Amino acid sequence: MSGKQVTIKGPDGEFMAYLNGTGPAIVVIQEIFGINHVVREIVDDLAAQGWTAIAPDLFWRLEPGVELTDKTKEEWDRAFDLMNRFDIDKGVEDIAATIGYARTLSANGKVGAVGYCLGGLLAYLTAARTDADATVGYYGVNIPSFLGEKDGIKNPLTLHVAGQDQFVDSEAQKAMKEGLKDHPKVTLHFYPERDHAFARVGGAHYHEGDAQTANARTRDFFRDHLG
């Protein structure tokens, strides 16, 4: 089943999202490369598992329709430039609008979210600031700067943490562990030998075994909490 482009009305205007599937809904939160083939494949895979999956274009205010890869320095430079100019607060507002849209499509009204890299941080903030029913973040960057918002997390959140993450050093990982260990809704899974983006298929640090483990945990988590 192939996906399609839909339009979401957010608080500041309309933006595109890639949609596929039927069932309870999951919002897929992009990396710094935009809604590229990796994100669309995640959406399509979730659709094949029985979910309504939707990935909003969060860079639309900067440049709609960004599709980069992780294969060239030029694309990395452009991706980092977009990330540095990206308004995180506005991004979470767009995710909230996408959650609202997804609830109208969800088979049971429930909506989860899953994010990677930049999207891992946004997943944490989605759990803290929106009404998402269950949220997962992969190797989120800069989460310690937002630990003051942890009390806003009312629904289950799982975070996958790469132990050798080049963008999240040991002190940041320690802060996450200490800051969230007593939160009743938060679960952290650590992958001690893995670097950033270990679950990105085709990426330089992809590790099939730990990616499968993390993805299996994510599947079980969503089945438990989204029905």
Entry keywords:
alpha/beta; eight-stranded mixed sheet
Structural class: alpha/beta
Shape label: globular
**Beta-strand proportion:** 15-25%
Strand order of the largest sheet: 1-2-4-3-5-6-7-8
Mean pLDDT: 97
CATH structural fold name = Rossmann fold
The count of strands amounts to 8
Q: At the fourth CATH level, what is the homologous superfamily?
A: Alpha/Beta hydrolase fold, catalytic domain
How many H/I helices? Answer: 6
Written account of the structure:
With 227 residues, this protein is of the alpha/beta class. 37% of the residues lie in helices and 21% in strands. The longest helix is centred in the C-terminal third of the chain and has 19 residues, at 208-226. The protein starts with a strand and ends with a helix.
Itemize the secondary structure elements and their pairings.
Layout: E1 4-10, E2 13-20, E3 25-29, H1 37-48, E4 52-56, H2 73-85, H3 88-103, E5 111-116, H4 118-129, E6 134-138, E7 157-162, H5 170-180, E8 186-191, H6 208-226
Parallel strand pairs: 3-4, 3-5, 5-6, 6-7, 7-8
Antiparallel strand pairs: 1-2, 2-4
Helix pairs in contact: 3-4
What's this entry about, in short?
The protein is α/β, with parallel strands linked by helices.
